[in-house]
Structure formats: C-alpha cells, structure tokens
C-alpha cells in the first residue's frame, strides 16, 4: 500500500508544471514536518499513539498442479501460503515528551517555512507561468 502511495505521488509530481515540480521538490521537508506535527497533535489529543504492526497469517490456496500422470490430467493442489496484513494498535506514550517533541517540530517548521519562502520565490522567478 505504501508503494502504491509513493508511486502515485511520483506520477503526480511528474505531471506538474516545471514551477510546481521545483516547489514540490524543494518543500518536501516542510511537508514531512507538517505531517509529523499533525501526528503528534493527534497523539496528544487522544492521549496515546497509534502504531501499525505487520502480522502474518497462513491461508490455504491452490498451488501449481503437480506432475501429470500418464493418461490423467493434473489436479490442482492445495498449500499453505503466508500473507502479511497490517493492524493498528494503541501505544502508550510519555505525554510530556510528546509535547516537547511537538514544540521542537513547530520550531523546525518555522525555520523550514522561512527557507521555503525564498526557494518558492526562486522557483517562480526561474519558471514563470
């Protein structure tokens, strides 16, 4: 699922104008910090974090048929196959540490926003629409 999201982002980025591509490429860190801020704020609002855990379960499925016996068609065989799936679980957090993390992320966001403003102006000058 993560691969599909990354592929979709790559396709959408490739379709933008040169100005949009320039802005998107140079503000990636700002978007990441924004997502982290939203996640930490959600954790503080709930009082706990949500972690995604990958588990494995065995499923019966049909496999390739075995070798054919002379005069008889080969029959499909059943076999066990491992399949991974993800579940979300609550996770205890240190609320004080989480609040401190949020403050640090907000400071970093302010720094990145200042840098992004300069880069956005440069991209607009280099690739006017």
Q: What topology does this entry show?
A:
Layout: H1 2-15, H2 18-26, H3 28-46, E1 49-63, E2 77-91, H4 95-126
Antiparallel strand pairs: 1-2
Helix pairs in contact: 2-4, 3-4
Question: Would you give an account of this structure?
Answer:
- There is one protein chain.
- This protein has a two-stranded antiparallel sheet with strand order 1-2.
- The protein is α+β, with helices and mostly antiparallel strands and 129 residues long.
- It has 4 helices and 2 strands.
Quick summary of this structure?
Helix content is 57%, strand content 23%.
What attributes does this structure have?
129 residues; alpha+beta; 2 domains; two-stranded antiparallel sheet; 57% helix; 23% strand; flat
How much is the radius of gyration in Å?
25 Å
What is the percent of helical residues?
A: 55-70%
Shape: flat
* Record field, number of beta strands: 2
- Relative strand content: 15-25%
Secondary-structure element sequence?
Answer: HHHEEH
Number of domains: 2
**How many strands, what sense, and barrel or not for the largest sheet?**
2 strands, antiparallel
């Amino acid at each position: 699922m993560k691969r599909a999201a990354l592929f979709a982002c790559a396709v959408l980025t490739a379709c933008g104008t040169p100005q949009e591509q320039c802005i998107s490429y140079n503000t990636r860190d700002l978007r990441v910090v924004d997502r982290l801020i939203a996640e930490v704020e959600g954790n503080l609002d709930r009082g706990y974090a949500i972690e995604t855990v990958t588990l494995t379960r065995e499923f019966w499925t049909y496999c390739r048929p075995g070798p054919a016996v002379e005069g008889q068609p080969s029959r499909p065989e059943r076999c066990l196959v491992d399949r991974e799936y993800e579940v979300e679980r609550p996770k205890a957090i240190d609320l004080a540490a989480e609040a401190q993390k949020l403050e640090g992320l907000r400071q970093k966001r302010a720094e990145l926003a200042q840098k992004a403003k300069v880069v956005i102006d440069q991209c607009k000058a280099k690739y006017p629409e």
